[in-house]
């Protein structure tokens, strides 16, 4: 049953009209990476890719997770179509897990398309033989999973989940890693950056450095980052399942 | 099949349903009330989408809240369009079948069966965005019956339907009722519901005002004598005879004779005898108070 929920939810999330928009995102990432590699021609391609990865690709992870999490659950609640799901003979845990899996896979699909777009733009055909690809993919899978779990949980608690999750993705996740002290531990992005093989290149106080978290380039041990991302995925998903299990679907929550 | 005991549901400071106790068995039952009376709240309590603040709701003896065992035997047709606009009716009903635990081939045959029942088998290939309101309602109904539930709950299913669509929808419900299903239909349009059932639950401001058969409820309203209009070629003669009956409160003579009585059943028993013995010419008997509109007006005015 989880498999079927996953299957239809994924189909809904990646239906053609939406896929075109996400292809455009991957195209925009390619263009941004190409422009970057031209502007930073004095940098080694590997260093350029490090910065593109930090500034653009990792943001796409959060963006996809925020949008897909919202589409998968809270938009169903808003449109009233969630009734169809919650009155079928399947447990709410099965339903949430199937939706979470679909959200994760959809986010990962767009993330990987963006990642390879950026890699090809900066590294050319060597992008696919780059030794960092394997570790990058591993980190991205964990990052997508952690973000998705967190945003699914958030979408069950807040009224305007898309706005809140986007604020988290582009506000909190931009400024908290740059803050002094130990605040950077409270950012998923910190662990995602640390889990990957890219280094954060410290520079002056420019917008680019704020976005890449280079003002206070603090990282955690890669092994610890992998564990933290895994734990976050499980804990946030568990909390979301608990919340969803006890959630009342009230009349008037939908737009009817 | 459905037991509600002292159920109340609050939304912060606002009450949705207030201390409702009722029992719903086989056949068609109407859940009546004006907008905001608490019908949707009660429906959601019975379909396990939310829990009562106090009291209990039981369906097949079990708590329906998030309970798959209950949903195996319960179908729900919501008041909103459950079918996404990018899906065809057939795909949507197939999904409902799959999510009810059927295999791919079983789901195909079950969904075709459900589509046939609601008369949508020839138009189910179109995307739902191309459907009329009536067609969407029928698809909604098809997804609710695809797993052959024992109990079917329909939230305002006749809303927005044109007269033809309404008639077709009611015919489908009548067919399902003949198959032995328990059907609960919520509505605020009384005359429509009246054509489907005489068994009702009447909600007003979250409280259950009355429950049972329409005639029983009507007979309980002692403060309002029951009106009976009798058509006859000689109204004055008929009036002279019925005014002598002890349970007749008043008689008004016009084109017809309008009798007000506190014991309509006794009056209906007595009328044929009078007609035969006195040779009265009676061409029609109607009771404007026997319809739901009148019952509803009386109860709400209390």
Describe this structure in words.
The complex is a heterodimer of chains A (256) and B (302). Chain A is mainly alpha-helical and 256 residues long. Chain A has one domain. Chain A has ten helices and no strands. Chain A has helices at residues 2-13, 16-39, 45-79, 82-86, 92-123, 133-157, 161-175, 188-195, 207-212, 222-245. In chain A, helix 6 (133-157) runs antiparallel to helix 8. The mean pLDDT of chain A is 86. With 302 residues, chain B is α/β, with parallel strands linked by helices. Chain B has a six-stranded mixed beta sheet with strand order 5-6-7-3-8-9, with helices on both faces. Chain B has a four-stranded antiparallel beta sheet with strand order 11-12-10-13, with helices on one face. In chain B, 37% of the residues lie in helices and 28% in strands. In chain B, a hairpin with a 3-residue loop joins strand 11 (248-253) and strand 12. Chain B has helices spanning 39-46, 68-71, 89-99, 104-117, 133-145, 163-178, 190-194, 214-220, 235-242, 264-278, 292-301, and strands spanning 2-11, 14-24, 27-32, 54-59, 74-77, 151-155, 182-187, 199-204, 207-213, 226-232, 248-253, 257-261, 282-286. Chain B has two domains: 2-218, P-loop containing nucleotide triphosphate hydrolases (Rossmann fold), CATH 3.40.50.300; 223-301, Alpha-Beta Plaits. The A-B interface holds A 1, 4-5, 8, 12, 15, 17, 79-81, 83-92, 245-246, 248-251, 254, 256 and B 11, 16, 40-41, 44, 47-51, 66, 68-69, 71-72, 74, 76, 78-82, 84, 86, 95-96, 98-101, 143, 147.
Task: Please identify the structural class of chain A as seen in this structure.
Answer: mainly alpha
Radius of gyration of chain B: 23 Å
Query: Percent helix among the residues of chain A?
Result: over 70%
Query: Which oligomeric state applies?
Result: heterodimer
Q: What CATH first level of the largest domain in chain B would be assigned?
A: Alpha Beta
The name CATH uses for the topology of the largest domain in chain B is: Rossmann fold
The structural domain count of chain A equals: 1
How many alpha or pi helices of chain B? Answer: 11
Amount of beta strand of chain A: under 5%
- Biggest sheet features of chain A: none
- CA radius of gyration of chain A: 19 Å
The largest β sheet of chain B comes out as: 6 strands, mixed
Helical segment count of chain A: 10
Helicity level of chain B: 25-40%
Number of strands of chain A: 0
Strand share of the residues of chain B? 25-35%
